[in-house]
Amino acid sequence: MDSDQITGLYGKVSGLAVPVSARVSEEQLPEVRIYTVTAEWIQTDLVRNSRLHYSQQWTLIADSNNHKSIRTVLPPGPCSPLSGELLSELSPTRGLRAVVRETGSQQLLEIWDRHGLRKSLNLSALNIHGRVYDDTQFGCLSWSECESKLLFVAERSRSSSAETRSGESAIRKDRSVYCEDWGEALTSKSVPVLCVVDLHHGEIDVLQSVPQDVSPGQALWAPGSQAVFFVGWYHEPFRLGLKFCSNRRSALFRLSLDGHCECISGDNLSVSCPRLSPDGSTLIYLQGSVFGPHNQCLSVQQLDLKSGKTSTMLDVVSRPQTGDFAGVYEALPSHCWSADGEKVVFSSAVRNWKDVFMVDRGTKKVSFLSDKHQRQVEDFSDLSKVYGSWKLLTVQRDLMVVCCSSPNSPPTLRVGFLPSADETVTWRTLQQPVVTFDYLWTVLDVTPTSDEDNLRYPGLDFGAILVKPSHLLCETGTPVVVFIHGGPHSQFPAEWNSTTAGLVELGFAVLMVNYRGSTGFGQDSILSLIGQVGSQDVKDVQRAVMAALQNDKTLDPKRLAVIGGSHGGFLSCHLIGQYPDSYRACAARNPVINAATLLGTSDIVDWRYTSAGFQFSYDNIPTVETLAAMLLKSPITHAAQIKAPVLLMLGGKDRRVSPHQGLELYKVLKSRGSPVRLLWFPEDGHSLSRVDTQVDCFLNTVLWLTQHL
């Protein structure tokens, strides 16, 4: 295929829409009960080099006397574009909708009702605060109970600081002072403030009395709307990157509108995702340890607001048994409570899958809710009609809205009511995917050999997902691309992945490996990787490759390539150095190449120490011992053995892994006459997430693999 055909193929697989949020409203009629499900989607458009945001609405008709039985799903109306919407939220009575919208350089707050636009405020022109935060780390938009106030988080206005009070001389003196930010993907976030809008008077107040050493976010109204709850991240002595890091010291606070602020969670912990029960009696939140693994298994805590006592609803799972709940590894949806406030619903990783779970507050029993689990999919040999990933978007009025997908099936929406005791969920598909693909996929369980077992955490296994064309396209077998996730504490669930789909469509088999340290296998698995990077994870990937080749004789062992980003790029470069005769090509995005030289340039310096097996402290000064250990765990030490041609793709604005890491390997390979090609994306960061960048990366990766395989 030529470049245009490859780009067109990528446009096909990446242009399939993905639901990102949903909401439910309900109306009781004499004979029936009507549910309206509104979903918001993101769709990539290569023509505009942008991602489109739109909504779609379904009407569900249920029996009046048995409202958990959906009688009819009416066809949806046409999709409606959501131009410039950054945040939106329905009021408690569902009669009003608040929207923070961006138009050009201006940010507007709009209030919509059934008759149209009721109120509009130009937040930028008022100049009370800086830009509104719309990220998932800090951002929020919360209605008060009386629907007369809105709460959100924004950057502190510089004009309200000492510069204004001291006049032009202060502006001139301080304009070059360094301003810390919150790292990769949060470079525009530095000093967040809590803002309250009085909708009756059109006035905005910045709440005072937030502790000076805390940056607030994820705020919501307390019962009665005379106080707010928020998560505060401690930023002294300096800020560390927050993206993909659930181990940052933080606490839960209650701030009354009269200025009294108190901490209502424990000390030296990491907290996130406060969610208030429907009756306002209980606040749940996620809790983890500070430092250590950058992402980890979290506990769910419940705070009784009347007594002030906190108890554990779900604890950290150290080592789950096969088929059991494996712990919480991701954020709670904004609406996660059952209508009676007795159950909490969420989705999380479990081995190589992602599933939806329900926990009963009283019994603390955890139930799987997907029909995949009900059908005992582990016994199936054919997974072509099974959804491997279930992600909860919302649960409201006890109606769950989930996004389901698998490696051969793009995302689709399904709905189902929360089950009563000993019942199963009856799931209804709102809309089938536009297209499904004739791929074969299977899940592998891999056990390390005895000499590769971890002495501190023995007996751990891991997994992988193999996706391949349904028909053999070459007599010598199918070439294999080993695809390694970053993190390292993340996961490749059995879900739709446009890169994997594009490669399989072109005739490659793709092996996605969840090595020890991946989420979904328990906290012991995560902890086992600490101090073992560059060794245990490398051996795990190679062991998974050998297992796949042994189990599937249609794969061509002489045509292996490896790709990955971040820690996945780190492992890719390790593999071609430690197993130089196994791989014929490598494509790495923003890889860690030399952990010693990365130490002073990464926004998560704590992880650089932890990954090498050292304790982190803010006042750490590098020693010969730590730098030597980091160097020995790095791919650069194996660079002389690399034989495979290497494609490097680097983001010029990467704050997590400096692009000079990739440049370091580039120069070494160049000086030794090894085939190497480097793509430089000056305006992109660590995730290389711009649409034009992703197209360029896929195209060049395919051409590189085709050339060298």
Automatic annotation (TrEMBL):
<protein>
    <recommendedName>
        <fullName>Acylamino-acid-releasing enzyme</fullName>
        <ecNumber>3.4.19.1</ecNumber>
    </recommendedName>
</protein>
<dbReference type="InterPro" id="IPR029058">
    <property type="entry name" value="AB_hydrolase_fold"/>
</dbReference>
<feature type="domain" description="Acylamino-acid-releasing enzyme N-terminal">
    <location>
        <begin position="41"/>
        <end position="435"/>
    </location>
</feature>
<comment type="subunit">
    <text>Homotetramer.</text>
</comment>
<dbReference type="Pfam" id="PF00326">
    <property type="entry name" value="Peptidase_S9"/>
</dbReference>
<feature type="domain" description="Peptidase S9 prolyl oligopeptidase catalytic">
    <location>
        <begin position="501"/>
        <end position="709"/>
    </location>
</feature>
<dbReference type="GO" id="GO:0004252">
    <property type="term" value="F:serine-type endopeptidase activity"/>
</dbReference>
<dbReference type="GO" id="GO:0008242">
    <property type="term" value="F:omega peptidase activity"/>
</dbReference>
<dbReference type="Pfam" id="PF19283">
    <property type="entry name" value="APEH_N"/>
</dbReference>
<dbReference type="GO" id="GO:0006508">
    <property type="term" value="P:proteolysis"/>
</dbReference>
<keyword id="KW-0963">Cytoplasm</keyword>
<dbReference type="InterPro" id="IPR001375">
    <property type="entry name" value="Peptidase_S9_cat"/>
</dbReference>
<dbReference type="InterPro" id="IPR045550">
    <property type="entry name" value="AARE_N"/>
</dbReference>
<dbReference type="GO" id="GO:0005737">
    <property type="term" value="C:cytoplasm"/>
</dbReference>
<dbReference type="InterPro" id="IPR011042">
    <property type="entry name" value="6-blade_b-propeller_TolB-like"/>
</dbReference>
<comment type="similarity">
    <text>Belongs to the peptidase S9C family.</text>
</comment>
<keyword id="KW-0378">Hydrolase</keyword>
